[in-house]
Amino acid sequence: MAAVEPSTGRILALVSVPSYDPALLSGNGSAARDAWARLNADPDRPMLNRAVQRTYPPGSTFKVVTAAAALDAGVVRNLDEATDSPTPTPCRGRGPG
């Protein structure tokens, strides 16, 4: 995930989930080697920096554009009006991979 300053494009923050504890890799003993092997074998690939090494479709960012277009076109007039949207699904566990 990236937080970007819209007016300049400046990157304010980067987050990659899932993550790992880099302290596990400090040193050169068997514990560090075991941690390295375990992290590289993990199917969730926690050492992959998803913020800079993957591309994703414009999800939440594009919702703002869609909402602004709907308001501008007059499709939506009452922001408090109920919609036909299904009940939101509660978040479970960690963020997207």
UniProtKB/TrEMBL annotation:
UniProt cross-references to SUPFAM superfamilies, sorted A to Z: beta-lactamase/transpeptidase-like (SSF56601)
Organism of origin is: Streptomyces haneummycinicus
Q: Which GO terms describe its biological process?
A: cell wall organization
> What name is this protein filed under?
Penicillin-binding protein transpeptidase domain-containing protein
* Entry superkingdom: Bacteria
Q: Which residues form the Penicillin-binding protein transpeptidase domain?
A: 3-85
UniProt GO MF annotations: penicillin binding; peptidoglycan L,D-transpeptidase activity
User: Which Pfam family, an example, fits this chain?
Assistant: Transpeptidase
Q: Name one GO cellular component term.
A: plasma membrane
